[in-house]
Write the structure tokens for this entry.
Amino acid sequence: MSGGIPQIRPEHLREIGLFGGLDDVTLEVLGQHLPAVRVEIGDVVVREGESSQEMFVVIGGELEVIKHGPGGGEVRVALIGPNDWFGEMTILDVQPRSATVRAVAPTLLLRMTAEHVETLLYRRDLKAYSIFLMNIARELSRRLRVADKIIAQVVTSVHGLSSDPRARRPIAD
């Protein structure tokens, strides 16, 4: 790659959960074809509400995930770093971005478009494509479990509800 951006080696990709279970040949193809992007502190990589079909894998650095609140203010909902990825929902569906992602440190990313997924995985090796999608599904499931736990904690603290569902039953006269 030009501009001082390093070539991403298969052994590095092997350490990233998104690529877990993929064979060395597939990792080599991905390392050769996925463009690396360097972003600086404050750079917005994706913006909530915009449309695109690309995801990013964090090779090094740190980014924040931001949601805009009802009053227009920003709320940081997550920090992501090396070996994490984001934007995968736009690969799976064509809905607008659900959050803004901004660099909080100099960061190196791999950019993967829906076209990359189709040409480098789906058309080349259906097994690799299936593994890749399962890796995304596992991470989405993990994130949903975390979000469910946070929602339950917030609802409990706001409403003062007990964790025992019987405690919310109306009292009979």
In short: The two ends are 76 Å apart (CA to CA). The domain at 10-157 is CATH 2.60.120.10 (Jelly Rolls). The chain has a mean pLDDT of 89. The chain has one domain: 10-157.
